[in-house]
Design a protein that fits this description.
Number of helices: 19
Structural class: mainly alpha
Strand order of the largest sheet: 1-2
Number of strands: 4
Order of helices and strands: HHHHHHEEHHHHEHHEHHHHHHH
Strand content: under 5%
Bound molecules: arginine
Largest sheet: 2 strands, antiparallel
Distance between the termini: 50 Å
Length: 463
């Protein structure tokens, strides 16, 4: 069934139908489409545009369609001839309830209808994604709480730099995903205005109550320009941008886990249940899930660039180009949801090899800065201290030992300023524990931050 056959004298070419149709993918939001129609019909009756009898028949019909679609009694097939989910629902409604079904679309266009459906759908998905990010944050916090004294090397240039703790490293990702969460909340707030009642582009002459439908559908109010309402896809661009950033964060984290999981590092071991094997090399246990999550960032970024490109040349108001918003947005949403769920599962089942991390921090001269700071505290200018410790490092490399293993004589041979207390000053514990400014890895500082994070999660609050 078509919604627009009247002024045509010929049938649509089959290839044109196939190219034009969106039912194959916009059926994804049949629930939102029906929900929007029910609100619309309630408002029409309240305004006296529709009789209460028609309203009740239509709502009953729509609810039966919803139920049958949910339980699979009614199947949306692509050869039904319907162009999109809007025609499908209206056509099926009229088949079921007769004449009254034809009154559903009074005072509405598919342009404001699709704008509404897409908003309702993405709003639901934003809530679902936010919940997944929150679960990941909870998992990260659990790892942090257990590891405020698990020493490991912190890196710059992928070279060991200074000692940190595992809690501190996880905390960096906590910050990233917290910002992601805050971005999702921002987008939700900004997009939460209802386009229904904007008509094709210029509103309608019926006395619609747009405040009422906005309220019924959980919006903060109606949108204020009917042309913008049917042509705005900014919220999708913002969402795809936020999803791209989440993907980028996941990808960075996966990259680290892949490195940490190698035989050379052995900082972590990905659980068997989250690894895969090789068809030829029996010894292999591969981090495929981490690699796939890293790889999928590409298609999410792709969706963002596609959407921006599709929108850039569209004159006001609605143009069919905008139908392209759906498949790529759906794909990006499904991809990121899958990645988040799998990533959280991988982290929660992964084991952290604390001894290996700590040994690695000890062997990499990560306490060299602290050795220089020791000299500074004894009055040596920092630039000289830097040079002295550089010489000590060279001597250690030649002997294959750590700074902690040099004898006091060896220290004194390079600078007489060194005393017995140097060992204490450059011990891993001191190096980390002395870093007590807020945001640093020292245990007391870290515990304060963990307390803040805990409260944020409890109160569902983000910065
Ligand atoms: N399938 C269309 C879309 O996704 C629905 C809106 C159709 N509107 C129109 N004027 N042809 O954009």
């Amino acid at each position: 069934m078509k919604l627009w056959g009247g002024r045509f004298t010929k049938e649509t070419n089959q290839l044109v139908h196939n190219f034009n149709e969106s039912l194959s993918f916009d059926q994804k939001f049949y629930r939102q489409d029906i929900r929007g129609s029910i609100a619309h019909v309630k408002m029409l009756a309240k305004q006296g545009i529709l009789t209460e009898q028609d309203r009740d028949d239509i709502i009953r019909g729509l609810e039966s369609i919803l139920e049958d679609l949910d339980n699979g009694k009614l199947v949306i097939s692509s050869d039904s001839g319907y162009e999109d989910i809007h025609s499908f629902v209206e056509g099926t409604l009229t088949e079921r309830i007769g004449e009254a079904g034809k009154r559903l679309h009074t005072g509405r266009s598919r342009n404001d209808q699709v704008a509404l459906d897409m908003k309702l759908y993405t709003r639901d998905e934003i809530d679902a994604i936010e919940a997944l990010v929150k679960e990941l944050l909870e998992e990260l916090l659990a790892v942090m709480e257990k590891n405020t004294d698990t020493f490991m090397p912190g890196f710059t240039h992928l070279q060991k730099a200074q000692p940190i703790t595992l809690a501190h490293h996880m905390g960096a990702y906590f910050e990233m995903f917290s910002r992601d969460r805050s971005r999702l909340k921002d987008i939700r707030r900004r997009m939460n205005y209802c386009p229904l009642g904007s008509g094709a582009l210029a509103g309608t002459t019926y006395p619609l109550d747009r405040e009422y439908t906005a309220e019924l559908l959980g919006f903060d109010g109606p949108t204020l320009n009917s042309m913008d309402s049917v042509a705005d896809r900014d919220y999708l661009i913002e969402l795809l941008s936020a999803l791209s950033t989440i993907s980028m964060h996941l990808s960075r984290f996966c990259e680290e886990i892949i490195i940490w999981n190698t035989n050379e590092y052995r900082f972590v071991e990905i659980d068997d249940s989250y690894s895969t094997g090789s068809s030829i090399m029996p010894q292999k246990k591969n981090p495929d899930i981490a690699e796939l999550i890293r790889g999928k960032s590409g298609r999410v970024y792709g969706a963002l660039v596609s959407m921006l490109t599709t929108m850039k040349g569209i004159p006001l108001a609605y143009n069919k180009d905008m139908q392209e918003d759906k498949e790529l947005t759906f794909d990006a949403i499904d991809t990121v949801k899958g990645c988040l769920a799998l990533f959280t599962g991988m982290i929660s089942s992964m084991s952290f090899r604390k001894e290996v991390m700590e040994a690695s921090a000890k062997n990499g001269f990560t306490n060299a800065t602290d050795a220089a700071d020791y000299l500074v505290n004894k009055g040596v200018p920092f630039r000289d201290a830097h040079g002295i410790v550089g010489q000590l490092v060279l001597a250690c490399i030649a002997k294959g030992i750590a700074l902690d293993d040099l004898s006091l004589e060896e220290y004194k041979a390079i600078s007489p300023v060194f005393e017995e207390d140097v060992y204490e000053a450059i011990s891993m514990k001191t190096c980390v524990e002395k870093r007590l400014t807020i945001g640093a890895p020292g245990q007391e500082a870290m515990k304060k931050v963990i307390g803040i994070y805990k409260k944020q999660l409890e109160m569902d609050d983000v910065r």
